[in-house]
Amino acid sequence: MKKIKLGVNIDHVATIRNARGEKYPDPLRAALLAQKSGADSITIHLREDRRHIKDDDLKKIKNSLIIPLNLEMAPTKEMLNIALKNKPDYVCIVPERRMEVTTEGGLNLTKKKKFLIKAISNLKKKGIRVSLFIEPNLKNIILSKELGADCVELHTGKFCRYFNKKKNINTLFLNIKKSAVLAESLNLEVHAGHGLTYKSTKKISKIKSFSEFNIGHYIISESIFSGLKNIINKFKRIINN
Ligand code: PXP
Questions:
Q1: Which domains can be identified in the chain, with CATH numbers?
Q2: What is the C-alpha separation between 128 and 92, in angstroms, rounded?
Q3: What is the spatial distance between Cα 53 and Cα 57, in angstroms, rounded to a whole number?
Q4: Would you state the pLDDT for residue 101?
Q5: Of 160, 169, 211, 237, which has the fewest CB atoms closer than 10 Å, so is most exposed?
Q6: How far is it, in rounded angstroms, from Cα 228 to Cα 50?
Q7: Do 58 and 71 contact (CB within 8 A), yes or no?
Q8: pLDDT for 152-168, tens place per residue?
Q9: How far apart are CA 37 and CA 121, in angstroms?
Q10: Given the CA of residue 215, which atom of ligand 1 is nearest to it?
Q11: Is residue 216 within 8 Å of residue 10, measured between CB atoms?
Q12: Are 155 and 204 in contact (CB under 8 A)?
């Protein structure tokens, strides 16, 4: 049976660091721990406003990892140049709006067609695997193939929101499934990402076309609850010694 890979997104380690303007928690330390703990790849999103991951994080993480680094980036010239210079193993091109809290939807492939063809070709020439973050529909899958992408990452955000609110997810699930099956039949690698929790991941992983899940916010969130007891005990030892 094919093993599904887990890409661990560590952006929100940087979010916590930046909230205080300190040097900790260090995203590099999180990347190395995730690597040691079995992550198949590390994902970072260098946003145009640098709200979490900074250019220096990208350089340090790129130079330290053994497992692949997946750089999420907006379809802009600036980001393309950064990717070509830093040569992450993978690039996932994502849409970006300054005011959004997180990546709200998939790429508009038609609007960005000219840029994407050039960017995908240039990145692939450097040996970088290119993925497109798209809404799960058949048109987007066919277009992604035509544009020359290696992979598609299906945006699971809406599905997860409905799933968490216990709304009817049948149509959304079916769209993801049909898109994943078509993408696999076209020899595209099929990934899923955004908003995934233990429960929604379990549901989505019933679709056998997926080869990779990219998960961030929930992994970092749950880590708080796995770690809190140890940290409190350590502080109690420090203050009572
Ligand atoms: N995949 C892509 C393309 C993303 O933009 C993000 C969010 O940065 C994720 C996966 C991870 O989403 P989440 O943090 O909600 O798990």
A1: 5-239 (3.20.20.70)
A2: 10
A3: 6
A4: 76
A5: 237
A6: 28
A7: yes
A8: 999 999 999 999 999 99
A9: 34
A10: 16
A11: yes
A12: no
Compute the Cα dihedral for 142, 148, 151, 155 and give only its sign. negative
In single-letter form, the type of residue at position 88 comes to: P
What pLDDT score does 2 carry?
78
**How many Å apart are CA 55 and CA 82, to the nearest integer?**
9
Q: What is the pLDDT of residues 45-76, one digit of tens each?
A: 999 999 999 999 999 999 999 999 999 999 99
Q: Which residues line ligand 1 (CB under 6 A)?
A: 9, 11, 45, 72, 92, 94, 102-103, 133, 153, 193-196, 214-218
| DSSP conformation class of 68 | P
Residue 93's DSSP bridge partners are 73, 132
Structure tokens at 91: 């690039």
Residue 103 has pLDDT above 80, yes or no: no
Of residues 58, 88, 94, the one with CA closest to residue 75:
94
Residue 94 identity (one-letter amino acid): V
β partners of residue 9: 43
Our answer to whether residue 191 is catalytic in this structure is no
Ligand 1 atom index nearest CA of 12: 14
- Helix ranges (DSSP H) in the chain: 11-20, 27-36, 55-64, 77-86, 113-125, 138-147, 157-164, 170-185, 198-204, 217-239
Distance (angstroms) between ligand 1 centre and the Cα of 193 equals: 5
Distance CA 236, CA 241 (A): 9
Alpha carbons 190 and 114: distance in angstroms, whole number: 23
Are the C-beta atoms of 135 and 106 separated by less than 8 Å? yes
